[in-house]
Task: structure prediction
Amino acid sequence: MGENIEHALDVKVPGATSIDRAGTFSFTASASDVPRVHGYSALEGMFFGGCIFSGRAAAWAFATISSLPCVGMVWKNNWFGDVTTNGGTWISIWCSGCVFEGNAMFGMSGNGVQGISLNTSRGVVIMGNAFDLLGTAINCTTAVGGLLVTGNNFGGFAGGTVTTPVANTANCTPNYVNQANDQGRS
Result:
């Protein structure tokens, strides 16, 4: 097994590479392990909807590397939360044409958890999500183009805060739009 795609889900799966507590497994696959569709990697046209990423020691749900970016990926109506220690990143991704909509993404009160880390990504829409108890909700780690961040709630939803809603915006060129976000509920 390689190190290109990493994700952790709270379900029991035969053949999981490690189990860190009852019912939680970690799975790692290399590009050669990913099924091929239309001659390309199967990280095209993926949809994650209604999933629960919960009970992790540190935030960690999904990660890709630059040699296997995601194309046409949608994350909709998922729960990311209940971490037991600070640290980690829920989603670290290289992508093109990705949408994050209607998700609830939470860390814990120490602000060491990061929500979404975008790495050399294009055409990303992040809208209508609830981010709370995070150090950084969205981190534009490396060059990100065509990023729309709108209609999100940054802090106050679970009684906490988000220290930095969107970090490293200087890496977001061209066409970075940040509009109509709620910086905390009253």
About this structure: The two ends are 47 Å apart (CA to CA). The longest strand covers residues 95-101.
